[in-house]
Structure prediction request, 643 residues.
Amino acid sequence: MPVGTHAAVRAQRREDLLESGVQVLLANTYHLLLRPGREIFEQFGGIHGFMNWPRSVLTDSGGFQIFSLPGSRTMSEEGATFRSYVDNQMVELSPELSIAAQKSIGADIMMVLDQCVPSTVEHSVAKAAMELTHRWAQRCLAARGDSAQALFGIVQGASYADLRVESARVITDMPFDGFAIGGLAVGETAAEREDCTAVVTDCLPADRPRYLMGVGTTRDLLEAVHRGVDMFDCILPTALAKQGVAFTSLGRRDLRRAAYRGMDAPIDPACACYTCKTYSIAYLWHLQRVHETQGWQLLGLHNIHFYQELMRRMRAHIIGGTWLDFYREQRDLLDARDSYGPAVTHVTKAQRRKLALRRGRYEVVTQGGVGHIRDTHSGETMHPVDDPQREARSLYVGPARVVERLKTDETAPLVIWDVGLGAAANAMATILAAETLAGERAAADGGALRPLSLLSFENDLDSLQLALSHVHWFPYLRHAAPNRLLAAHRWVSCCGGIEWRLLPGDFNTVKFSAPPPDIIYFDPFSFKTDGPMWSLAAFRELAELCATSATELFTYTYSTSVRAALLAAGFHVAKGPATGPKSETTIALSPRAAAAAHGHELLGEEWLVKWRRSDARVPFGADPEDLSWQEAVSGHPQFRGQF
Ligand SMILES: [Zn+2]
Prediction:
């Protein structure tokens, strides 16, 4: 039950509460008694009409606030007298007056007036308060009369097991509709609360709702459900939202941490709430930072949704007979804090597992036993649709005819640029193909292969390092080469025919110092993540570097703007092979490569017609008004003679 102290859940609209599946709201009798007062509820026919809430409402008795809020009060057998914080008048609250107020408010579930004491008081004080609570419970039942509104009894007894058992026995002897465990979550440790809860739930009838008042965190809920509790109320989902804290399937996330700045992902990837469907963490982080009210409204919406979803999942696992597995799995997970970013002080087992799957901005995700590297900033996954090795072969190594080219008698090395080393899928597919070929050659006639010079460009080695610490998911990395490459930036095969070099840094800078390539695997993140790699200016520089060599470039995209950029830069452009859901990819040829027999299918007139109509006709970073690149595309030699 979300807490709607003043007949409203902090900053939440009723539509969102209904949407998240909230069944019951909790409202506070004490506050509503003072403002707006009983007569307003009587005028509107109760709280449902007043706040237009179609589902159930539970009201507390007002006792907890009277005993816990500061201010003057006097207690007697009759009831309590306290001074109103609104108008300083003396107000009386007795079992009869509490029930009358709750009847006026129109709660579906009313609570008896009880006497709350701190859970740490002496046994005699706790016993006296408990006995008074029992007498007041009788008076509440009498005051309820024949009202159709449900009434719950409350078990008290501080943290004394004998008192809790006695209280449960006395209260369950009375004809209540449900039973609450009161006086907890007021200063005891979590372990004491859990023990106490178990003692009480053992004594409660199985056919009535059991309600643990004022609890708690998601982990507290899990532990209490494990001990047989059905209902909870807590202000944490909205109160912590105001502080920037979210409860998620990855544990708690604290948006005050700078680590979340710029993170382009939902706050909970497993959540279907409006906030998670609509906004990134980066945006919520920003709202929190500028103290924008919407920030905690959106976070509160998510937290309430997460709590409701957690309760639904717990119910499904109990009914499905899988409770214990779920309970064990969630214990660590729900309590994990800020698994993203630095400065984690308390690390749980589940969290350690998650942390090991992350390095810098990258994380390992697995699909059917195959590992992929995902960029947590953009959400982009490298080789997302297939086994990375299979894709490397079908998209780069195969179409580039690496094996055929290594079989020739040429003595100059075959130079391959591997742009975007990532987790070395393309580089290792190349090395493994070359080694296989060398092995076959050695077995047959011993003739040497054409030397291979593989140059990998990468500005962030975290992805390869991360994959190397999980080789069971990246089996192609079980090889001396990648470790050697990281350590020395160069690996040479034992027979000397294959050299692999690492050129660290920004490709657009480093490319000028590399020998001209025969083949380019162009496999950086997409232009959404890494725009400068795909700009017209960068492709023009690349075309110039390849002007005197027969270079073939292979890339996974078939976007119209990328193809237009390649054409405008002076490359010929052909269709590349299909991969996964993509019906085709792209191959670019330098003029000398285009003049040779290459066997690729160049784009024809129909592509040009499509390009003219396309919304994506402008290359990344090009001026849409500039005629020079447009003329370079439409007047490109590869389309000449086709009209
Ligand atoms: Zn959410």
Q: What stands out?
A: The pocket of zinc ion is lined by residues 268, 271, 273, 275-276, 302, 305 (CB under 6 Å). The radius of gyration is 34 Å. Confidence is low (pLDDT under 50) at residues 339-345.
